[in-house]
Amino acid sequence: MNTPVANPQELVRILVVDDHPNTATTLARALAQIGPTVDVVSAVSGTDALEKVKNVGVDILFTDMIMPEMTGLELIEKMQNHPGGKPAYAYLITAYDVPGLKVTAQRLKVNDVIIKPVRPEKICQIATHAIDEMKHASHPAGKKDAAKRKFKILVADDVMDNVTLLTRYLEYEGYDQVTARDGQEAINKIRDEAPDLILLDVNMPNKDGFTVLEEVRADPAIAHIPVIILTAARLDPADVQSGLNLGADDYVTKPFDRHELMARIRTKLRVKEAEDITRRRNRELNLLPEIGKQLSARLDTKDLANVLLKRTAETLGAIQANMYILDENEKEVRERYEVVLNPSGVIEDLTPPAKLIQHIQETHQGLVIEDAVNDPLWRVDVRIYIRSALIVPIFGRYSLLGLILLTHEQESYFTSDHLLLLQAIASQAAIAIENARLYSVVLQEQKKVAAILRHASEAILLFDEQRNLTLLNPAGEQLFLARPVKLSQPLPADRGYEGLLKLINDARSANMSISGDILWPDQRTFTAFVAPIEEGGTVAILHDVSRFKDLDQVKNEFIATASHDLKNPLTSIGGYAQLMGQAGPLNDNQKDFVERIQHSVKSMSELVQNMMSLAQADLNATQKHEPVDIKQVLGEVTNEFAPQAKEKGQSLEVSSPDKTIKVNGDALHLRQAFRNLIGNAIKYTPKGGNIHINSISESEKIVIHVEDNGFGIPAADLPFIFNRFYRVRTGKASEIEGNGLGLAIVKSIIAEHGGIVNVESEIGKGTCFSISLPVLNRNN
Ligand code: ADP
């Protein structure tokens, strides 16, 4: 009769049968007080009872045992075959506990045998409890609760009879029990089995009840379990007091009344259940900040999935937790992680179906699946143990990243509170997953960069804003083998790194990348490419060009020697061509030929002279280092060209600062440079034009402008005019003779003096070359 059938929405029908009419009506009246949900019928005999409930079933039956015609047990047996269904609860009331009665009652699944005299309150109490149980059993949430709350009670008593009796009572009430025969066994079982309640005898071997109680209350893992002390009646009241002081929840004196004990147990369990819920809620509330902390410390998706799933499953009581990471299309599962907490450890393959993923994408919501076997969105195989589930999306900033799934073996296990909590956890997971992804992208990039740095044959050096060396690739380390340098420190300026340091400074102050050849302390030559970087530092890439420098040297030496050797025969040809006229009269044709020879000799001599100058400048061979008065050089060269300018009707003016300005260098070379610039200005300016040489002294340099209002240079040619043998091939300039070496020589000489040449020009308007040279320190 333990199968309750009543529907809470319907009336609970109670039948009271007693051959003593007064008793029957008194009890019926008391039961009717329970409330409007009960319908009480009373009868004075079994026959009367059967007649009264002929058409309807009865939920709870109270019947007297000894009655004429039909005993209580006979009535119970008959009611069990009643067409309206058997009673959910049946109770037998008897004046004498006759031998064998209980056994028969038990066989007929009688819920309890009540010994007279019966007080109406007691009957009401029993009925209320039965009604409660029926409600729990038929309500879906209640069913889950009833199943979940099969309370476990530990009975610790050294007297075998007591243990047997108590366990039978408890079994009757539907509790699980654990027994212990002494104090030590009791404490061990409390720790191992974590019962919901402890019935503790005081006098036990090994450890008495008080010691056990003390140990229970001292251990945080079990301290919350309620303890009811069972004492002998003759116990000293002082002992009772000390037991209560130790934290006993209640006292029951032997021999105890069974119903009283059960009522007390129920009360304690109800309190414990409420406390358990609070404890669980607290754990759930703590879960969120705790997971947040754990996740922020992790940058590996697998790692963070494990932590999140384990903690969440433990706290929410799930038996399996899964995380699915979707691919970019948000359709296919790309990675999956799972944590299994069910005791069998069996992992269920639970990939959520596309239909469910689509549903979540559309609704942006998680959902509670109450009945996983029959849910239209997700039907699990009946053969697996999963019966309910909780599933929430992990939404990243732009897309659905994945899903978290928790499962349970009971139907309707998860609540909407669980859903809210898991959704909050999922949003933390989203942030953590996106961080982890970003981190792995950065890591990949870093690896690539590291590989490039490692394998580059060029030396790569990184300097911070304060010009400290912060990074060196292996090729870079090779540069400092002989004289190691420390990272996070600047390169020592006195060790021969001036060239590089100057390039770095220039690149930083110009805020653009520049390149140049530098001489390393070990006499190797490097082409250095130096660029400022966004973060405020500078990167320098050094390429060893020592070999090319050597080749260049050979080439320049060859040109210098060859041009020198060519000069003598050219002088002879020129000389003899001039003597031809003196040797005898020449006819017109012969005169023309001789002039052509002389013109060619002149061009060729110029070319040879230019090539020689260039080679010598490159070789750095003849350069002197002495103070040169720039004003004087400019005056001399201008005077040299005055006749030529005059011949073309051009004005040629020099304006210079009053004071003497000296540069450190080679006067011959500098004269050559200005000669080329002023010569060009005259050459590429039409008759009657103006040429103006203007020098301006600045703090550490002098800037000389050679300006004309001649043909100008096309913008397309400007970048190339300093290249060797480059000539403008369009417009008026192309009609003028030249060999394209003049400006290359200028550039080379000025560079040799630590200066720079610039040009600005506009077609038809004129050209201005600017030369800036470092001036000699006054002290020098
Ligand atoms: P070139 O022997 O041809 O003069 P340069 O190296 O001196 O060789 O000059 C290169 C080219 O630059 C010339 O061919 C000419 O077209 C152009 N150029 C140089 N100076 C001037 C100038 N002052 N005005 C116009 N064009 C010039």
Verbal overview:
This protein has 780 residues and is α/β, with parallel strands linked by helices. Helix content is 44%, strand content 21%. It is built from 21 helices and 28 strands. A six-stranded antiparallel β-sheet has the order 18-17-16-21-20-19. A five-stranded parallel β-sheet has the order 2-1-3-4-5, with helices on both faces. The longest helix has 40 residues, at 416-455. It starts with 11 loop residues before the first strand and ends in a 6-residue tail after the last strand. Residues 1-9 and 139-148 have low confidence and may be disordered. Bound molecules: adenosine-5'-diphosphate (ADP). Adenosine-5'-diphosphate binds at residues 676, 680-681, 684, 708, 710-713, 721, 726-728, 733, 738-744, 767.
Secondary-structure blueprint of this entry?
Layout (H helix, E strand, L loop, with lengths): L11 E6 L3 H12 L5 E6 L2 H7 L7 E5 L7 H8 L9 E6 L6 H7 L4 E4 L4 H19 L1 H9 L3 E5 L3 H13 L3 E5 L2 H11 L3 E5 L7 H10 L8 E6 L4 H9 L4 E5 L3 H39 L4 H16 L3 E7 L6 E8 L13 H10 L3 E3 L18 E8 L4 E9 L7 H40 L3 E5 L4 E5 L1 H6 L9 E2 L7 H13 L3 E6 L5 E8 L5 E7 L1 H38 L4 H32 L6 E4 H18 L3 E5 L6 E4 L1 H17 L6 E8 L3 E8 L33 H11 L3 E7 L3 E9 L6
Parallel strand pairs: 1-2, 1-3, 3-4, 4-5, 6-7, 6-8, 8-9, 9-10, 23-25
Antiparallel strand pairs: 11-12, 11-15, 13-14, 14-15, 16-17, 16-21, 17-18, 19-20, 20-21, 22-24, 25-26, 26-28, 27-28
